[in-house]
Structure formats: C-alpha cells, structure tokens
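Field log, afternoon session.

UNIT: design team B
ACTIVITY: writing a sequence onto a fixed backbone
BACKBONE:
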C-alpha cells in the first residue's frame, strides 16, 4: 500500500489542526519522504503525552503510546523528543494542542 510522503502528511495535520481551532507546530523536521512522526499532544497546554504511528497487534497501522509515562515538566518533555531525534535524524516531531489529539490524528491519517 502506497503511503503519503511524510512532509505532505505533516502539512495536512498542521493545516487541519488550525482549521479545527487547535494548534500544531513542527518541533523538528525529518525526512520529507519516509520519516516517522513522533507526536507530542497537549489539551489546552496540559497533560503532555507522546504517541506515534506503528503496527498494532494485528499488523495494521495504529497510533501507539510512546515515551515516558510520567512527564514531570517541560524539560523532561523536551529531553525525551531530543533524545529520540539524536538516534533518528529522519524523525519528525509534531506538537499538537487540540482536543482528543489521538482521535484527530487517526482520522487525519486515515487510520481509524
């Protein structure tokens, strides 16, 4: 199955988040064609959590929880995604501040 280039997918997510009254910001730009995307999600600036696209138990693409369970402060949040980028320079990091970020992302990426 052909996949949309990562840069185009990120642009669509940013545009749709803004249209829906949320916000989205690229924190780190990865490979335009095939880079993975690490999502940092907030709801009204609170409750930071990470997720990313991966393969679920049935072998189909899903959004999977990622990162540390406890994110004490913004320094811990930033440290996590920066460590991930050090290991994978193709990785995009996208911050979303929108209600139900996981649902929103799954719908936009046509994973639901």
């Amino acid at each position: 199955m052909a996949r949309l280039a990562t840069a185009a997918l990120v642009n669509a997510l940013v545009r749709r988040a803004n249209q829906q009254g949320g916000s989205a910001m690229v924190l780190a730009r990865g490979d335009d064609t095939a880079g993975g995307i690490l999502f940092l999600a907030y709801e009204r600036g609170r409750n930071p959590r990470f997720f990313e696209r991966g393969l679920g138990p049935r072998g189909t693409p899903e959004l999977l929880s990622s990162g540390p369970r406890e994110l004490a402060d913004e320094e811990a949040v930033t440290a996590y995604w920066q460590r991930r980028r050090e290991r994978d320079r193709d990785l995009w990091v996208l911050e979303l501040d929108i209600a139900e970020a996981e649902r929103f992302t799954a719908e936009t990426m046509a994973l639901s």
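LOG NOTE: The first strand starts at residue 23 and ends at 28.
NEXT ACTIVITY: expression trials, pending approval
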